[in-house]
């Protein structure tokens, strides 16, 4: 019990004893206590409790603020071991109706704290609210919870009583149709009442009598006051963000379970109830909830890599995204079936993200940031079938534009890319649609004209045909499967699964596709010059050389035959583990290219830096000198004379070799950039943009390396092969931290480790502002890299599970590698030599192919790129 001089339920000029609930959350390192079981390293809960009792019982207090100050003062004075404390003070009899008041603040010994939270809980009154006739005739009970963030912390008493009286007076005279409008009016009252001291407010309004089978119907909103107007604001926490802590004091508890936490660039990281589009994005990103790899020394490369992974994951939400006062999360559909379809899609995305070319009629500070993309799909046309196949995808954007402003922008982008109006559902260079806009339902058509035939010139969100279109639901399912589509009450995953279940026995087959750009570019082409003259701010995307595709099998269809794409390997190094000094000159490299193409290779991987254990350091300049001339020579095949043994090759093989796809095997952005400009089409990085071990001790260097690698891949619009690795290939083979995923035979930890560790890197690469398009990523589980013989065999036997759309770990919502194309590189690896007792890598080629053939059966459900030189 605490004595306050401002009264209890009723105002009073005399001090009134009343119940107060205190919660102290104390941040304290428990490591020493846990290791030694020595009380001297712990916190004396009894002593802290006595301090709180003394503070509460020895004097009268004017308000919550004065009690707050005395508790903080005495706690830090009497208990020097406490450095960081959060206090929550609740007066349960402070107001009528029968509301309680609460103050929450976090303070360190040195810092005064920059904000605090003021809450009125369980404020009740009667009001007319609802659309039913009975609700319009008689008032019903409504309840409110308000949380205001006050900044900076103030000693001036906040008048909870006056605010509550204003709210009760206004609400009791209102007659809103919706709970949302009622909550908005309360937020407006609170913001105007506290103007100058509180930045924003969260209001939760409920109707306890609305539903028979539920406690209440509720709505929660967060608003701020900007230039005198109430505007949308990201939800604020009702208390400090959670942290590792010990708790002590009277009425011990953690922070409120209903608190909403915010991350720098993710609008909503956790919500008590509902599945918003923001949540769906954030939940998929939350793949770091797996068990850690346990304690490790600072020299442990696995621990270094995991420390780096946390940095890379943070990059997915911290990539220079300005945090505006309010913005929206929007899902867009993109389609193209005229011209260079892939280039059209990339150009549309670049136009979204280039400020200054399309906002001249909109707000000067308008922005659109692409923060996530789906895979790419080739689909049969719907409705009007006599037209070319479409390339379809979707993306999530953040924007401060209104829905109608965004629609105007989309039409502008369609015009720039080259859409020519034909007939409805007809061919087009680019088609852009707003699928969802936050959780809003928007329809600009007159009430009597809302039919599916009346869509032209109007904005209808969610898109009215969304639920019937696989080519829309499938891309959304790639990104936000748990988003509940407004007006349906179902998640995207549920709608997508339901749609597939209704398809007939022989549905049209959708293909997942990966486009490869054509390099080198023709710098002085008339088309390029014309484009640059019109839009100099935008780097034009490269033209498409070809694309790979594989059919997707709906659950009701018979599995289709898949093509296995073959990768040849050309090592332009003197010290490769399998063929050093064999192809490190141009005539030999060209000879290999011809033979590879004749043998069926679809792509040739060219590397100038050996990844074998103990390989010597190669400077960037030397690596460039090894690979770039070979790339140029293959692209200009015919300039070099080749030995007579190749004279039997058909002229068509020479032409094919000149056009063959090439990947550059490097972890250096400089080498990748130069090789692509010289004619390569793909980047193959064994470190998945995280760099070698010598970068992992310096987080700034690794972040810079990551940013540059991702930027090069994004700017050049090239596919990337990203491999799972753990530093030196011959070390770091312990996966016991993932034993929770092992089956009854003890297998599964290695596959789980790949999902978790590579999944974190992929998340950081494809999500957030500046992210690489999802459709450009191919994953490599890293056979032969930091895995035992048994671990490599586990990967081969269970390769299909690496990209299955199933949860990874006990709490993860989804496998972060779900749906990505997979590359298997087993040929000539040392583990095959160990099994077959073959020390010469050249003798392992056939066995590599056989091991792969044994995996083809279970891998039929996934796209496979075979890393093999058997046919070459």
TrEMBL record:
It holds the Pfam family HPPK. InterPro entries: DHP_synth-like, Dihydropteroate_synth-like_sf, FolB_dom, GTP-CH-I_C/QueF, Hppk, Hppk_sf, Pterin-binding_dom. Residues 564-872 form the Pterin-binding domain. GO terms for cellular component: mitochondrial envelope. GO terms for molecular function: 2-amino-4-hydroxy-6-hydroxymethyldihydropteridine diphosphokinase activity; ATP binding; dihydroneopterin aldolase activity; dihydropteroate synthase activity; kinase activity. It comes from the Eukaryota. Keywords: ATP-binding, Folate biosynthesis, Kinase, Nucleotide-binding, Transferase. Its EC number is 2.7.6.3. Pathway: Cofactor biosynthesis; tetrahydrofolate biosynthesis; 2-amino-4-hydroxy-6-hydroxymethyl-7,8-dihydropteridine diphosphate from 7,8-dihydroneopterin triphosphate: step 4/4. One of its GO terms (biological process) is folic acid biosynthetic process. PROSITE patterns: DHPS_2, HPPK, PTERIN_BINDING. In the N-terminal section; belongs to the DHNA family. This is 2-amino-4-hydroxy-6-hydroxymethyldihydropteridine diphosphokinase. It comes from Meripilus lineatus.
């Amino acid at each position: 019990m605490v004595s306050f001089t401002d009264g209890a339920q009723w105002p009073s000029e005399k001090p009134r004893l009343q119940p107060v609930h205190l919660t102290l959350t104390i941040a304290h390192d428990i490591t020493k206590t846990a290791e030694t079981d020595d009380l001297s390293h712990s916190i004396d809960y009894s002593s802290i409790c006595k301090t709180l009792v003394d503070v509460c019982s020895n004097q009268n207090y004017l308000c919550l603020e004065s009690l707050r100050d005395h508790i903080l003062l005495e706690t830090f004075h009497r208990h020097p071991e406490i450095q960081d404390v959060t206090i929550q003070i609740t007066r349960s009899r402070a107001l009528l109706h029968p509301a309680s008041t609460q103050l929450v603040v976090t303070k360190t010994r040195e810092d005064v704290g920059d904000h605090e939270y003021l809450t009125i809980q369980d404020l009740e009154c009667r009001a007319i609210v609802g659309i039913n006739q009975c609700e319009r005739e008689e008032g019903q009970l409504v309840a409110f919870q308000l949380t205001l963030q006050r900044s900076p912390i103030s000693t001036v008493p906040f008048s909870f009583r006056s605010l509550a009286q204003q709210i009760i007076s206004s609400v009791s005279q209102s007659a809103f149709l919706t709970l949302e409008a009622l909550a908005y009016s309360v937020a407006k009252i609170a913001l105007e009442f506290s103007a100058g001291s509180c930045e924003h407010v969260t209001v939760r309004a409920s109707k306890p009598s609305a539903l028979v089978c539920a406690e209440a119907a509720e709505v929660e909103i967060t608003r701020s006051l900007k230039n005198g107007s109430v505007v949308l604001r990201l939800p604020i926490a009702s208390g400090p963000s959670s942290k590792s802590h010990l708790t002590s004091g009277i009425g011990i508890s953690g922070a409120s379970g209903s608190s909403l936490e915010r991350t720098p660039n993710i609008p909503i990281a956790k919500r008590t109830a509902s599945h918003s589009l923001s949540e769906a994005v954030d939940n998929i990103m939350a793949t770091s909830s797996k068990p850690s790899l346990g304690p490790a020394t600072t020299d442990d490369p696995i621990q270094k890599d995991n420390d780096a992974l946390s940095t890379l994951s943070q990059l997915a939400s911290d990539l220079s995204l300005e945090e505006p006062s309010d913005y929206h999360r929007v899902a867009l559909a993109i389609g193209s079936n005229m011209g260079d379809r892939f280039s059209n899609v990339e150009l549309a995305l670049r136009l979204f993200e280039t400020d200054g070319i399309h906002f001249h009629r909109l707000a000067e500070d308008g922005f659109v940031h692409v923060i996530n993309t789906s895979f790419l799909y080739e689909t049969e046309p719907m409705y009007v079938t006599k037209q070319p196949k479409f390339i379809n995808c979707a993306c999530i954007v953040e924007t401060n534009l209104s829905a109608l402003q965004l629609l105007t922008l989309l039409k502008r982008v369609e015009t720039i890319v080259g859409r020519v109006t034909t007939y409805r559902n007809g061919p087009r260079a680019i088609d852009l649609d707003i699928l969802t806009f936050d959780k809003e339902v928007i329809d600009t058509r007159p009430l009597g004209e809302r039919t599916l035939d009346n869509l032209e010139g109007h904005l209808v969100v969610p898109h009215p045909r969304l639920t019937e279109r696989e080519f829309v639901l499938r891309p959304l399912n790639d990104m936000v499967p748990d988003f509940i589509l407004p007006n349906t009450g179902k998640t995207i995953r549920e709608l997508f699964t339901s749609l597939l279940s209704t398809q007939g026995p022989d549905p049209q087959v959708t293909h997942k596709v990966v486009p490869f750009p054509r390099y080198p570019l023709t710098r002085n082409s008339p088309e390029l010059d014309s484009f640059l003259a019109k839009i100099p701010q935008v780097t034009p995307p490269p033209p498409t050389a070809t694309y790979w595709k594989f059919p997707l099998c709906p659950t009701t269809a018979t599995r289709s035959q898949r093509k296995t794409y073959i990768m040849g390997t050309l090592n332009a190094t003197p010290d490769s583990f399998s063929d050093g000094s064999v192809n490190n000159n141009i005539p030999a490299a060209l000879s290999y290219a011809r033979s590879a193409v004749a043998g069926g290779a679809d792509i040739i991987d060219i590397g100038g830096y050996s990844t074998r254990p103990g390989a010597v350091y190669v400077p960037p300049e030397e690596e460039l000198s090894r690979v770039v001339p070979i790339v140029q020579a293959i692209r200009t095949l015919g300039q070099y004379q080749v030995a007579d043994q190749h004279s039997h090759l058909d002229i068509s093989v020479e032409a094919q070799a000149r056009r063959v796809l090439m990947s550059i095997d490097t972890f250096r952005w400089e080498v990748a950039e130069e090789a692509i400009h010289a004619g390569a089409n793909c980047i193959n990085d064994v470190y998945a943009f995280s760099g070698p071990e010598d970068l992992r001790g310096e987080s700034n260097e690794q972040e810079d390396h990551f940013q540059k690698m991702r930027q090069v891949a994004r700017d050049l619009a090239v596919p990337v092969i990203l491999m799972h690795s753990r530093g030196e290939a011959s070390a770091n083979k312990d996966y016991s931290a993932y034993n929770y995923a092992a089956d009854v035979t003890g297998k599964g930890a290695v596959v789980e480790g790949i999902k978790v560790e590579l999944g974190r890197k992929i998340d950081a690469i494809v999500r957030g502002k500046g992210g690489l398009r999802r459709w450009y990523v191919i994953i490599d589980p890293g056979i032969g890299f930091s895995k035992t013989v048994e671990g490599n065999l586990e990967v081969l036997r269970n390769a299909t599970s690496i990209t299955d759309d199933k949860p990874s770990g006990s709490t993860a919502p989804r496998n972060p590698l779900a749906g990505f194309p997979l590359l298997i590189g087993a040929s000539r690896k040392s583990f095959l030599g160990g099994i077959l007792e073959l020390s010469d890598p050249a003798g392992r080629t056939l066995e590599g192919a056989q091991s792969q053939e044994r995996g083809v059966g279970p891998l039929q459900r996934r796209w496979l790129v075979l890393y093999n030189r058997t046919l070459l």
